[in-house]
Amino acid sequence: MTTRVHPTAIIEADVQLGSGTAVWDNVHIRHGAQVGEECIIGEKSYIAYDVRIGNRVKINAFVYICAAVTLEDGVMISAGTIFTNDKLPRATTGDLEALLPSDPDEKTAPTLVREGATIGAGCVIGCDLSIGRFAMVGMGSLVTRSVPDFHLVFGHPATSVGCVCRCGEIVHRFEGAGMDARHEAACAKCRRRYVIEQRRVTEVEAA
Q: So what's the pLDDT on residue 177?
Protein backbone atom coordinates (compact mmCIF):
# COMPACT_ATOMS: atom_id res chain seq x y z
CA MET A 1 0.00 0.00 0.00
CA THR A 2 1.20 3.47 -0.89
CA THR A 3 1.78 6.21 1.67
CA ARG A 4 0.06 9.43 0.57
CA VAL A 5 1.32 12.85 1.69
CA HIS A 6 -0.39 16.07 0.57
CA PRO A 7 2.08 18.52 -1.02
CA THR A 8 1.30 21.19 1.60
CA ALA A 9 2.14 18.88 4.54
CA ILE A 10 5.41 19.47 6.43
CA ILE A 11 7.15 16.21 7.31
CA GLU A 12 10.41 16.81 9.19
CA ALA A 13 13.51 14.63 9.18
CA ASP A 14 13.48 11.17 10.76
CA VAL A 15 9.68 10.80 10.65
CA GLN A 16 8.43 7.26 10.02
CA LEU A 17 5.16 6.82 8.11
CA GLY A 18 3.74 3.32 7.77
CA SER A 19 2.40 1.73 4.61
CA GLY A 20 -1.04 2.93 3.55
CA THR A 21 -1.01 6.03 5.78
CA ALA A 22 -2.55 9.25 4.41
CA VAL A 23 -1.38 12.70 5.53
CA TRP A 24 -3.69 15.52 4.45
CA ASP A 25 -3.19 19.22 3.73
CA ASN A 26 -1.21 21.52 6.01
CA VAL A 27 -0.38 18.78 8.52
CA HIS A 28 2.90 19.31 10.40
CA ILE A 29 4.74 16.24 11.78
CA ARG A 30 7.86 16.98 13.80
CA HIS A 31 11.14 15.09 13.76
CA GLY A 32 11.34 11.63 15.27
CA ALA A 33 7.59 10.96 15.23
CA GLN A 34 6.46 7.45 14.32
CA VAL A 35 3.13 6.81 12.58
CA GLY A 36 1.98 3.25 11.90
CA GLU A 37 0.25 1.61 8.94
CA GLU A 38 -3.10 2.62 7.41
CA CYS A 39 -3.48 5.78 9.51
CA ILE A 40 -5.28 8.99 8.54
CA ILE A 41 -3.86 12.34 9.68
CA GLY A 42 -6.50 15.01 9.04
CA GLU A 43 -5.92 18.47 7.66
CA LYS A 44 -4.12 21.13 9.71
CA SER A 45 -3.24 18.73 12.52
CA TYR A 46 0.06 18.96 14.42
CA ILE A 47 2.08 16.01 15.71
CA ALA A 48 5.06 16.89 17.92
CA TYR A 49 8.51 15.34 18.00
CA ASP A 50 8.87 11.70 19.04
CA VAL A 51 5.11 11.06 19.29
CA ARG A 52 4.27 7.37 18.83
CA ILE A 53 1.17 6.40 16.84
CA GLY A 54 0.09 2.80 16.17
CA ASN A 55 -1.64 1.19 13.21
CA ARG A 56 -5.07 2.13 11.81
CA VAL A 57 -5.31 5.31 13.88
CA LYS A 58 -7.70 8.02 12.67
CA ILE A 59 -6.83 11.63 13.54
CA ASN A 60 -9.35 14.20 12.32
CA ALA A 61 -8.71 17.86 11.42
CA PHE A 62 -7.22 20.53 13.72
CA VAL A 63 -5.85 18.07 16.30
CA TYR A 64 -2.86 19.09 18.46
CA ILE A 65 -0.73 16.19 19.71
CA CYS A 66 2.19 17.32 21.86
CA ALA A 67 5.39 15.51 22.82
CA ALA A 68 5.15 12.50 25.18
CA VAL A 69 1.82 11.30 23.75
CA THR A 70 1.39 7.68 22.61
CA LEU A 71 -1.61 6.44 20.65
CA GLU A 72 -1.98 2.67 20.38
CA ASP A 73 -3.61 0.75 17.51
CA GLY A 74 -7.13 1.59 16.41
CA VAL A 75 -7.45 4.90 18.28
CA MET A 76 -9.72 7.67 16.99
CA ILE A 77 -9.00 11.33 17.80
CA SER A 78 -11.83 13.59 16.66
CA ALA A 79 -11.58 17.12 15.31
CA GLY A 80 -10.26 19.93 17.48
CA THR A 81 -8.83 17.78 20.28
CA ILE A 82 -5.90 19.22 22.24
CA PHE A 83 -3.35 17.18 24.23
CA THR A 84 -1.16 18.67 26.98
CA ASN A 85 2.07 17.57 28.66
CA ASP A 86 2.94 20.13 31.36
CA LYS A 87 0.98 20.62 34.59
CA LEU A 88 2.90 23.79 35.59
CA PRO A 89 3.68 25.62 32.36
CA ARG A 90 5.62 28.89 32.30
CA ALA A 91 6.93 30.96 29.38
CA THR A 92 9.96 32.35 31.24
CA THR A 93 12.14 31.96 34.30
CA GLY A 94 10.77 33.43 37.53
CA ASP A 95 12.64 36.70 37.06
CA LEU A 96 11.21 37.04 33.50
CA GLU A 97 14.77 37.43 32.16
CA ALA A 98 14.98 34.26 30.06
CA LEU A 99 12.57 32.41 27.79
CA LEU A 100 12.22 28.77 28.78
CA PRO A 101 12.84 26.16 26.04
CA SER A 102 9.92 24.20 24.57
CA ASP A 103 11.82 20.91 24.35
CA PRO A 104 10.68 18.05 26.62
CA ASP A 105 12.42 17.89 29.99
CA GLU A 106 12.05 16.17 33.37
CA LYS A 107 8.71 17.95 33.93
CA THR A 108 7.16 16.70 30.68
CA ALA A 109 4.34 14.31 31.60
CA PRO A 110 3.20 11.50 29.28
CA THR A 111 -0.26 10.56 28.06
CA LEU A 112 -1.16 7.09 26.81
CA VAL A 113 -4.28 6.37 24.76
CA ARG A 114 -4.82 2.61 24.71
CA GLU A 115 -5.98 0.52 21.77
CA GLY A 116 -9.42 1.10 20.32
CA ALA A 117 -10.21 4.22 22.38
CA THR A 118 -12.16 7.16 20.95
CA ILE A 119 -11.80 10.82 21.92
CA GLY A 120 -14.70 13.00 20.79
CA ALA A 121 -14.53 16.36 19.06
CA GLY A 122 -13.25 19.39 20.94
CA CYS A 123 -11.79 17.57 23.95
CA VAL A 124 -8.86 18.72 26.09
CA ILE A 125 -6.72 15.88 27.44
CA GLY A 126 -4.61 16.39 30.56
CA CYS A 127 -1.25 14.73 31.10
CA ASP A 128 0.28 12.07 33.33
CA LEU A 129 -2.73 9.83 32.67
CA SER A 130 -4.03 7.07 30.42
CA ILE A 131 -7.24 6.49 28.50
CA GLY A 132 -8.17 2.81 28.63
CA ARG A 133 -8.80 0.21 25.96
CA PHE A 134 -11.95 0.91 23.91
CA ALA A 135 -12.92 3.76 26.26
CA MET A 136 -14.93 6.64 24.81
CA VAL A 137 -14.56 10.31 25.74
CA GLY A 138 -17.64 12.40 24.89
CA MET A 139 -17.28 15.52 22.78
CA GLY A 140 -16.14 18.68 24.51
CA SER A 141 -14.85 16.89 27.61
CA LEU A 142 -11.96 17.90 29.85
CA VAL A 143 -10.02 14.80 30.92
CA THR A 144 -8.06 15.37 34.14
CA ARG A 145 -7.55 11.77 35.34
CA SER A 146 -7.14 8.31 33.86
CA VAL A 147 -10.11 6.62 32.20
CA PRO A 148 -10.61 2.85 32.75
CA ASP A 149 -11.02 0.33 29.93
CA PHE A 150 -14.43 0.45 28.17
CA HIS A 151 -15.67 3.44 30.20
CA LEU A 152 -17.80 6.19 28.71
CA VAL A 153 -16.85 9.59 30.17
CA PHE A 154 -17.85 13.18 29.54
CA GLY A 155 -18.06 16.57 31.22
CA HIS A 156 -15.88 19.22 32.89
CA PRO A 157 -14.06 17.42 34.38
CA ALA A 158 -14.92 14.17 32.61
CA THR A 159 -16.59 11.52 34.77
CA SER A 160 -17.65 7.95 34.05
CA VAL A 161 -21.32 7.55 33.18
CA GLY A 162 -21.31 4.02 31.80
CA CYS A 163 -19.56 1.42 29.68
CA VAL A 164 -19.26 0.90 25.94
CA CYS A 165 -18.69 -2.17 23.78
CA ARG A 166 -15.77 -2.67 21.43
CA CYS A 167 -18.15 -1.65 18.64
CA GLY A 168 -19.00 1.62 20.42
CA GLU A 169 -22.54 0.86 21.62
CA ILE A 170 -23.43 1.66 25.24
CA VAL A 171 -23.83 -1.59 27.20
CA HIS A 172 -24.36 -0.29 30.76
CA ARG A 173 -25.02 2.99 32.58
CA PHE A 174 -23.82 3.86 36.07
CA GLU A 175 -26.92 5.08 37.88
CA GLY A 176 -28.89 4.44 41.05
CA ALA A 177 -27.93 2.93 44.38
CA GLY A 178 -26.56 -0.27 42.84
CA MET A 179 -24.23 1.28 40.32
CA ASP A 180 -21.15 -0.40 41.90
CA ALA A 181 -22.78 -3.83 42.12
CA ARG A 182 -22.01 -6.71 39.78
CA HIS A 183 -23.80 -6.58 36.43
CA GLU A 184 -23.72 -8.71 33.30
CA ALA A 185 -24.42 -6.99 30.02
CA ALA A 186 -24.58 -7.88 26.33
CA CYS A 187 -24.22 -5.48 23.43
CA ALA A 188 -27.50 -5.12 21.55
CA LYS A 189 -25.62 -4.65 18.28
CA CYS A 190 -22.82 -7.24 18.19
CA ARG A 191 -23.76 -9.45 21.19
CA ARG A 192 -20.37 -9.25 22.88
CA ARG A 193 -20.75 -9.86 26.60
CA TYR A 194 -19.27 -8.05 29.61
CA VAL A 195 -19.18 -8.25 33.38
CA ILE A 196 -19.14 -4.95 35.28
CA GLU A 197 -18.18 -5.13 38.94
CA GLN A 198 -17.12 -2.17 41.09
CA ARG A 199 -17.06 -0.29 37.76
CA ARG A 200 -14.36 -2.56 36.39
CA VAL A 201 -15.30 -3.97 32.97
CA THR A 202 -14.25 -7.47 31.89
CA GLU A 203 -14.93 -9.03 28.49
CA VAL A 204 -16.61 -12.39 28.86
CA GLU A 205 -16.18 -13.68 25.32
CA ALA A 206 -15.74 -12.51 21.78
CA ALA A 207 -18.73 -12.13 19.47
A: 55
Confidence of residue 206 (pLDDT cuts 50, 70, 90): low
Domain annotation covers residue 117? yes
In angstroms, the CA 65 to CA 111 distance is 10
Q: How many domains does the structure of the chain reveal? A: 1
Q: Smallest Cα–Cα separation from 166: which of 101, 118, 100, 112?
A: 118
Q: What is the domain-level CATH number for residue 79?
A: 2.160.10.10
- 101: which DSSP letter? P
Element (H, E) at 129: strand 129-131
Alpha-helical (H) ranges within 39-185 are none
Start-to-end CA span in the chain (Å): 30
Domain-located, residue 192: no
Q: Do residues 48 and 31 touch, judged by C-beta distance below 8 A?
A: no
Mean pLDDT of 33-44: 98
What is the domain extent for residue 119?
4-93+106-172
| Structure confidence at residue 104 as a pLDDT band (50, 70, 90) | confident
- Whether 202 is in a domain gets the answer no
**Alpha-carbon dihedral angle through residues 40, 120, 132, 180, given to the nearest 10 degrees:** -160
Sign of CA dihedral 145, 113, 138, 178: negative
pLDDT of residue 182: 87
Residue 182 in domain: no
pLDDT tens profile 46-79: 999 999 999 999 999 999 999 999 999 999 999 9
